[in-house]
Design a protein that fits this description.
Strand content: over 45%
Distance between the termini: 40 Å
Low-confidence stretches: none
Largest sheet: 7 strands, mixed
Helix content: under 10%
Radius of gyration: 13 Å
Mean pLDDT: 96
Length: 124
């Protein structure tokens, strides 16, 4: 089992940047693919980005491609989401998730463990 704790959320103006972190504890971090999802009020939880166990493969939702970067540091048991050129529509609670597949998935049901979420608010 693995426990996930997100941090780094906050309030930022449109065009600004934030870096989210997700610290993992428990079983070997490198044994999990990792994903970031987000959920705005009244909406479903949407896929944002994912990264393979080794960090060699990443994939992004079209809405964030070119603006967000997912990375991981297996020795630090941490996955990151660098968010640049933020837009008001990026405002949501951001969740990290861990799954047993090698490359991860865009489907939230493929992940086994979830953090508690961190709020990101982008003002216009």
């Amino acid at each position: 089992q693995v426990q996930l704790v997100e941090s780094g959320g906050g309030l930022v103006q449109a065009g600004g940047s934030l870096r989210l972190s997700c610290a993992a504890s428990g079983r070997t971090f490198s044994g999990y693919s990792m994903g970031w999802f987000r959920q705005a009020p009244g909406k479903e939880r949407d896929f944002v980005a994912r990264i393979s166990r080794s960090g060699g493969t990443t994939y992004y939702a079209d809405s964030v491609k070119g603006r967000f970067t997912i990375s991981r540091h297996n020795a630090k048991n941490t996955v990151y989401l660098q968010m640049n050129s933020l837009k008001p529509e990026d405002s949501a609670v951001y969740y990290c998730a861990a799954g047993y597949s090698v490359f991860g998935s865009d489907d939230s049901s493929a992940y086994d463990y979830w953090g508690q979420g961190t709020q990101v608010t982008v003002s216009s």
